[in-house]
Amino acid sequence: MYKIAFDVMGSDNGSAVAIEAASKFIKSRKDLYLVFVGDEDQIKTSLEKFPIDESRFEILATKEFIDMNGSIMDIRRKKDSSMVRALETLKDKKVDAMITGGNSAAFIAGSHFILGELNGISRPGFMPTLPTAVNNKLTLLLDVGANLEADVEDIIGYAKMANIYAKNVLKIENPLIAQLNIGEEKSKGTLLQKEIYKELELDENINFFGNLESRDILAGKVDIIVTDGYTGNMCLKAFEGASKILMTEIKSQLYKTIFTKLKALTLKKSFDNVSKKFDYKNHSGAILLGVEGIAFKAHGSSDVKSFEATLRMTCDAVENDVLNKIKKELN
């Protein structure tokens, strides 16, 4: 039985959305036990509407939570917050993993102070899973915002950890890894990118593709893309925004007149398939690679679908023992 601490406070849409997602998801996982962390009254009220078998969960009641306007100092100030308590249960090995949809900066700070980093890792990285144009192929991108800056050792660490994750969770035998850059040529980029290129190229345990431009992130050319958190975060949010605007614009055009509506009916299945494939909500969770525990961050604006995706990804990471395999490789 896998045990996951779920901080249901702090996200934009409130605790009820998180509880609803858990209620739906747990029906498909007989091996899952949840520890709901947060305001007891809110959790119980939500469970009345979205019931879960009492043998499948427990409530860890807290009096505080860190909202989206909070800061990293709240990790110290709000010791009874749901995020801090969820991280502590993971630190104390009372659970196998934890999830939060709360403040990202506070989550990163809390992971640093409470969990600590793995041996050889100084800066952990956020790693989401992205859909691609290739059917049934996903791409891992990191870092997407845990650290704005990164040095050569950080990027090499990201590549090594993501390589292990891709092999064990995505079941890719020999993951192809690229460095995000402004051009494909070896000579492109700053001195940092050039040095990273040399190191990745020399590493016999890395199947190095070379440089990859941002326009090819969703093309499915590689399995893993490494970069600094500043660049990665902008790429991720550009993809999310473009995806949402594009689908909205397509729907607007298709339902503009009675004639386009009739034509749209014949293409509905095709458009639904594309929409489902590139809907970031189906892959919205991001693991914080490099800390002493399996810790996932859901999007702050997560809806039911997004939280279900994060729960699924967390279960996959636990089931495949990804943390211990990363630690073994790094050591």
TrEMBL record:
Pfam families: FA_synthesis
SUPFAM superfamilies: Isocitrate/Isopropylmalate dehydrogenase-like
Transmembrane segments annotated in the record for this chain: none
Reactions that this protein is recorded to catalyse: a fatty acyl-[ACP] + phosphate = an acyl phosphate + holo-[ACP]
Subcellular location: Cytoplasm
Gene3D superfamilies named in the record: Isopropylmalate Dehydrogenase
UniProt entry keywords in alphabetical sequence: Acyltransferase, Cytoplasm, Lipid biosynthesis, Lipid metabolism, Phospholipid biosynthesis, Phospholipid metabolism, Transferase
Entry keyword Lipid biosynthesis: yes
GO biological process: fatty acid biosynthetic process; phospholipid biosynthetic process
Similarity-based family: Belongs to the PlsX family.
Role according to the record: Catalyzes the reversible formation of acyl-phosphate (acyl-PO(4)) from acyl-[acyl-carrier-protein] (acyl-ACP). This enzyme utilizes acyl-ACP as fatty acyl donor, but not acyl-CoA.
Name the record gives this protein: Phosphate acyltransferase
Organism: Mesoplasma florum (Acholeplasma florum)
Name of the encoding gene: plsX
